[in-house]
Amino acid sequence: MSSDRQPTTRRAAGEKSSERASEFTTVSGYPIRGLYSAEDLSGWDPDRDLGLPGAPPYTRGIHPAMYRSRLWTMRQFAGFGSAADTNKRFRYLLSQGQAGLSVAFDLPTLMGYDSDHSHSEGEVGKCGVAISSLADMEALFDQIPLGNVSTSMTINSPAAILWAMYLAVAEDQGVDWKHLAGTLQNDILKEYIAQKEFIYPPKPSMRLVIDTIEFGARYTPRFNPISISGYHIREAGSTAIQELAFTLRDGIEYVEWGIRRGLAVDDFAPALSFFFNAHNDFFEEIAKYRAARRIWYKTMNERFGVKLARSSALRFHAQTAGCSLTAQQPYNNVVRTALQALAAVMGGAQSLHTNSLDEAWALPTEFAATLALRTQQILAHETGVANTADPLGGAYFVETLTNEMEDASWKYIRKIDEMGGMIAAIERGYPQREIADASYHYQVSVDRKEKIIVGVNDFTGEESPIDILRIDESVRGQQAEQLRKLRSERSSEEVARQLAALRKAAQGTENLMPHIYAAVKAYATLGEICDSLREVFGTHEEASIT
Amino acid sequence: MSDKRIRVLIAKPGLDGHDRGAKIIARALRDAGMEVIYTGLRQTPEMIASAAVQEDVDVIGLSILSGAHNTLVPQLLNLLKQKGMSDVTVLLGGTIPEADIAGLKKAGVAEIFLPGTSTQNIVDFVRERATRK
């Protein structure tokens, strides 16, 4: 398409520059020219490259009427303290007009440790809610009818286990699994690349992911078993192009593994969903989402030969950029978040989380979380941006940037193909190194004031502290007590029997979901189930790249 | 002291996997001519204290974004004392609420660097502390 085009200068020869900088770049360091025009789009075919909203290649969005038919889902990520604490926050958010739930788990849960494990000390309930067994999951969704809400769960290495707990709560509430809606994050590849919450080595971890995809295709047609995530790649310091390319290459890896499992691609591809960052650079972000849809459309058709239209239409959740929030002048974060959210909406997001102003300090207070939700409601109902599909379609700048981001992503995707796929690339440290380099270069440009952050390296002033959320340190003690009670009341023979069956199955090749489900129902704890799999799979240590 | 390279241990205690800041600081200190050892992820206070002894470092830089600082940092400081390493300068960076800063400093943390700190400030601080001894 347009990758080799030379930057055009619109200035007459000899005219003196009156520009305020020698070069203009996006927050990712990507060069931006002074003007874009029809010349930049020579060779670009609007019928082929743009199409209509709801039609291939989905550049303009995946629904014909976009937000005129249905607004994006306002889905605020929440979780802290005990299951009862978070249940209260969930019910508050639902009462305030939020449409879907999104669970943040604490670090012990993310790493597959019970709250009373020694590694959990100091971490219980801090970054999210502590869930160690089905009993905690029952408390988390107490009085929330799972047939009427959709629930997103940010859980990766132990995703199959937390999902089994959720399915068990649904069964207990009498909700048919066919009606359950929601999303598991369950994207282990980006853990090795960026977020680093991995337990097992890549191959057994991929098996667990494919087990959930296979199980979901069979029993939970409305539940997305995976959310292929660029968010954390970007938070770790990548450029927008790296976020786009690595995420879509991860998507390709999951599809290849699914096919290798023997699944028909059209049976599981429609349930694959994506998750992108919404960062500061407005047009770069919009172009990123549009390019993502076009790349995925081409990939699914040309590489995998899908038959269903839904198999190649990329649906995504967006979250505003946590790493863009500043501890200094925290109220400025409200403005940043609103503009980032606007970019996600202009880019056609299906659901959105807006961060709270206080998150460079701690988890959000109820006041800050409500303001973040209100930001989305103002965008949806007051600004008029949801009145037409893809309002920026056809703009010279946006279409050119979309083309250029697509071209740059293909280069990365081809390079990773040549390395033998994403797992091989991860084992070589390739995406990790690319991100670390980008992150360092960005920091250098901030330190040199080549990039200005208001309130941090310019426009600084007096700071006054804000109220922040404190997590009660007693959560670990309460959890430990409940776990002791649980272990004494459940049938330990049944737990031992189910864990032994799980270990045996893990040594073979069968789908582990039914065994995990049975163990969860017997009130085996998260830590016990993860330990059983650790025995069979081993654990993963990364070679650190600085 | 002046002709010896400053030795710094950059460590990630606890379960937190957010290593962007730790890696940037490791690289900035290295670019400033210091000897930097990065522990990698998920180190217990015991592992960090042992590494500090083994590597004979002048400075330990901790990065914590999980909210576990009030538990993990005092544990490390106690272990350093037990190992006769209380002259090591301990620095902390990450998501640390203002209200916790005074207590952590009283416990022995030399300085706490909040989000938005320039790497040059940290380089200057480390150099000043390490050469003062």
Describe the structure.
- The complex is a heterodimer of chains A (546) and B (133).
- By secondary structure, chain A is of the alpha/beta class.
- Chain A has a single domain (46-383, 391-447), classed as Methylmalonyl-CoA mutase (TIM Barrel, Alpha-Beta Barrel), CATH 3.20.20.
- Chain A has helices at 46-50, 83-95, 107-110, 134-140, 159-173, 189-195, 202-219, 231-235, 240-261, 265-268, 282-303, 332-346, 366-381, 396-419, 422-427, 430-447, 475-489, 492-507, 513-521, 526-537, and strands at 73-74, 77-78, 100-104, 150-154, 181-184, 223-224, 226-229, 272-278, 316-320, 351-353.
- Residues 1-9 of chain A have low confidence and may be disordered.
- Chain B has a 5-stranded parallel beta sheet, sandwiched between helices.
- Chain B is an alpha/beta fold and 133 residues long.
- Chain B is globular and about 35 Å long.
- Chain B contains 5 helices and 5 strands; from the N terminus they run E-H-E-H-E-H-E-H-E-H.
- Chain B has one domain: Rossmann fold (3-Layer(aba) Sandwich).
- Classes of the chains: A alpha/beta (546), B alpha/beta (133).
- The A-B interface holds A 107-108, 110-111, 113, 119-123, 126-127, 191, 195-197, 235-237, 323, 325-328, 360-363, 436, 439-440, 443-444, 446-447, 453, 456-457, 465, 468, 470-471, 473, 541-542, 544-546 and B 10, 14-20, 22-24, 26-28, 30, 36, 38-42, 44, 66-72, 95, 97-99, 114-116, 118-120.
- Alpha carbon gyration radius of chain A: 23 Å
Poorly predicted regions of chain A: 1-9
Corresponding CATH architecture of chain A: Alpha-Beta Barrel
The total number of structural domains of chain A is 1
What's the arrangement of strands in the largest beta sheet of chain A? 1-10-9-8-7
Given helix and strand content, the structural type of chain B is alpha/beta
| SSE string of chain B, helices as H and strands as E | EHEHEHEHEH
In whole angstroms, how far apart are the ends of chain A? 35 Å
CATH class value of chain A: Alpha Beta
Structural class of the secondary structure composition of chain A? alpha/beta
Helix content of chain B: 40-55%
CATH names the topology of chain A as TIM Barrel
Query: Class of chain B in CATH?
Result: Alpha Beta
Low-confidence stretches of chain B: none
Name of the CATH superfamily of chain A: Methylmalonyl-CoA mutase
Average pLDDT of chain B works out at 94
CATH architecture of chain B: 3-Layer(aba) Sandwich
- How would you sum up the global shape of chain B? globular
Number of domains of chain B: 1
Main sheet record of chain A: 5 strands, parallel
The name of the CATH topology of chain B is: Rossmann fold
